């Protein structure tokens, strides 16, 4: 799924190096404690609460009522559909642009440190800030609409197309694409730089067209990095709150916003339902990780080298 | 750079710079009615508000956010370096499972975890406290640090440590004078990852901090609700600067590898 060690220095392979169980416990103990107690513990406690667990009344107080309410809610399918559409679309656009950008950078930018520095800037900017900026850019009274009026393309705010809080989630997509392209591009650059030009030159000598060289040499080599970073982006956008909260519509809500709405409701009875939606997001993401893993393995067995 | 290289360069400059244009313009605008393309009056009202009227609050948010991110990053390193070493250097039974468990929280969003922990944090007196929010940030910062350091230790040759031991260095001395200097670029990247993740975190801070721990993102959200665009734009820029500084400051140590992999 995730493979570290893609840095450009030659690796000293740790072939079969072993150590005592005591040392391992000492090294891994604190990390496992953090992840198992806080992360896994949080999920288990969430499950108990989504099941309506009342402390002191034991496991008999568990009920499927809250989870059932969420699963039978007529809004669930629309909410899921919109969330999936936003995540899938932003991941696809970002992957596509990143492949083109990474290849262009390797070919044209060479060792220009300025370009790489510039591309690192978006990685440090919080999503929230870009969401605010997109609001100031794309809203009906935003900078783009003002530009449209100034050059005479539109009459006023009312004739400007709805790009934030809109049904297609254009504003949300804009934020995610801007933020995720540099992330995926840097993951691809690490692989492309290691790959060198020998294979491509060999391909060219054998009279492979540019298209063939891309699909049969470059793409198979960057595919694992592209898949892994795409999956990370998909999972992140599927569970992120700030951007759809600021730029999304109030109906249907994206799953994370819906989860938090319920969780923070004055009516404490909605709280288990909020947690149930949160857990549903978690389950969907884990299932999509497993599915993509299986698909990849299946494709490999069939001899498709992607 | 040739013509196409220059085109690529300016496309990147424009795309990266674009979101900062409205933020800068709004933060320096005094009056800017629709549909004017340019503010009617420029002024420093918003910046004055940020640094004087609401100065203590914004400065407080800045301090809280910084302390929170620094604490989280420091603990992430303390926990992540040993774990990264174990995963990068050694083979042991169950390694794949251990790695999966440790890396999983990178992909699974913190939303459900924060909601699940909240009630128990209230009981333990950790809700609405600095320590509680550090703990929830650790759930995703530690795995990221481990992921980076795992990669670092895969390229690390521990034989040099044995040489130092033969020359009479103590275990602590080996860690401090041999291991740390060699893995420093990776450690810097891991620290920066954790810092940035914690720095830009909103929802889990809100759930566990209960709105009592006023970090910059919490303040910024409140400002957006109040609808004062110039002030929200100015605070957005204040929010961006420390992360920029962290990037520039660490650029030397990170070297050419850059921030590959940061989210």
What's the short story on this structure?
Chain B: It is found in: Cell inner membrane; Cell membrane. The complex is a heterodimer of chains A (306) and B (263). With 306 residues, chain A is an all-alpha fold.
Structural class of chain B comes to mainly alpha
> How many helix segments of chain A?
12
Count of domains of chain A: 2
The protein's oligomeric status is heterodimer
Strand content of chain A: under 5%
Q: Give the strand content of chain B.
A: under 5%
CATH superfamily of chain B: MetI-like
Give the overall shape of chain B: globular
Count of DSSP-assigned helices of chain B: 12
Architecture (CATH level 2) name of chain B? Orthogonal Bundle
Q: Any idea of the CATH class of the largest domain in chain A?
A: Mainly Alpha
| Mean pLDDT rating of chain A | 84
DSSP, total strands of chain A: 0
Determine the fraction of residues in helical runs of chain A and give it as a percent range. Answer: over 70%
State the low-pLDDT regions of chain A, or none: 1-14
Q: Would you list the SSEs of chain A in sequence order as H and E?
A: HHHHHHHHHHHH
Distance between the termini of chain B: 30 Å
The topology string of helices and strands of chain B comes to: HHEEHHHHHHHHHH
Organism (chain B): Desulfofustis glycolicus DSM 9705
Family (chain B): Belongs to the binding-protein-dependent transport system permease family.
GO cellular component, one term (chain B): plasma membrane
Keywords (chain B): Cell inner membrane, Cell membrane, Membrane, Transmembrane, Transmembrane helix, Transport
